[in-house]
């Protein structure tokens, strides 16, 4: 990127030279006039639109994936007791499930930061149900252990324990196979249920809007894997700000709570630094 040397109005109405407007601190974008900025922004927009169109093409291919049958009668346990996978559809054709990682016996603050962030923005499934898609969260823990966490976080009562089923000999992968920290999609045909899609890892970022917003900013996520210009702040480990101390400052996984927990009534400073992370 080149820097314009043209004079242009400053915010206070006076004229100044663009080059002289460069902030003194290192590692910031060059300062240009509005026309130069718009030209470069428009150039990047062409790439962004191509990215969107490729995403549409991938989604079209996803709709053409085959499906595989799972156990519609698998029993899960929720607030109202045992129910079946088929019942979770509530008569609808489709069901989306988030497989929330759970660390048995650990306090609330030691539960997975990544899963907390992944699920937080989509806990109200109103727009899914409006399109005829049911929603549930599965975790490998006794429901008696999940219930206090659901209450503390103020979550809707669509959480279910799959612990008993997953421990049965010969039980199929009702939760879509693979590890927890995964979104899975099911399609119902009559009383038979089929797995149609499963995404994890970076694929789960679709439900992490905070990360998408950070990617729009000049600094990004400030994570070490990112390609940043020379002089930018040094990147840290992925997810370094997902867990914080009570002052809200990211603490690189040491102690604290998943950041959103500090908005919960009754959240208190953490006295133990030992925890698991995704």
Short summary:
With 278 residues, this protein is of the alpha+beta class. It has helices at 34-62, 113-120, 126-130, 143-153, 163-166, 209-216; strands at residues 7-9, 15-17, 68-70, 75-78, 81-84, 94-99, 133-139, 159-161, 182-189, 192-200, 243-244, 257-258.
Indicate the topology.
Layout: E1 7-9, E2 15-17, H1 34-62, E3 68-70, E4 75-78, E5 81-84, E6 94-99, H2 113-120, H3 126-130, E7 133-139, H4 143-153, E8 159-161, H5 163-166, E9 182-189, E10 192-200, H6 209-216, E11 243-244, E12 257-258
Parallel strand pairs: 6-7, 7-8
Antiparallel strand pairs: 1-2, 3-10, 4-5, 6-9, 9-10, 11-12
How would you sum up this structure, described in words?
With 278 residues, this protein is α+β, with helices and mostly antiparallel strands. Helices cover 23% and strands 19% of the residues. The strands form four sheets. Strands 3-10-9-6-7-8 form a six-stranded mixed β-sheet. A two-stranded antiparallel ribbon has the order 1-2. A two-stranded antiparallel ribbon has the order 4-5. A hairpin with a 5-residue loop joins strand 1 and strand 2 (15-17). Residues 1-20 have low confidence and may be disordered.
């Amino acid at each position: 990127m080149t820097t314009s040397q043209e004079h242009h109005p400053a915010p206070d109405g006076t004229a100044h030279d663009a080059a002289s407007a460069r902030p003194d601190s290192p590692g910031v974008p060059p300062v240009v006039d509005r026309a130069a900025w718009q030209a470069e922004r428009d150039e990047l927009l062409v790439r962004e639109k191509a990215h969107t169109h490729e995403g549409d093409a991938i989604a079209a291919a996803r709709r053409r994936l085959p499906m595989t049958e799972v156990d519609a009668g698998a029993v899960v346990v929720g607030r109202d007791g045992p129910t079946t996978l088929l019942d979770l559809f509530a008569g609808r054709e489709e069901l989306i499930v988030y497989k929330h990682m759970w660390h048995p016996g650990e306090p609330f603050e030691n539960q997975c930061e990544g899963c907390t962030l992944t699920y937080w923005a989509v806990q109200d499934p109103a727009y899914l149900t409006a399109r005829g898609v049911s929603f549930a969260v599965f975790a490998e823990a006794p429901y008696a252990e999940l219930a206090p966490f659901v209450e503390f976080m103020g979550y809707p009562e669509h959480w279910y324990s799959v612990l008993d089923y997953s421990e049965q000999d010969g039980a199929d992968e009702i939760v879509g196979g693979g590890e927890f920290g995964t979104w899975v999609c099911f399609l119902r045909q009559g009383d038979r249920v089929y797995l149609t899609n499963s995404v994890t890892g970076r694929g789960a970022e679709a439900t992490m809007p905070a990360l998408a917003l950070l990617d729009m900013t000049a600094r990004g996520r400030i994570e070490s894997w990112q390609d940043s210009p020379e002089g930018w702040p040094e990147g840290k480990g992925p997810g370094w700000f997902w867990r914080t101390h009570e002052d809200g400052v990211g603490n690189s996984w040491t102690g604290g709570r998943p950041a959103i927990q500090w908005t919960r009534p009754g959240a208190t400073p953490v006295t133990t630094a030992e925890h698991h992370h995704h």
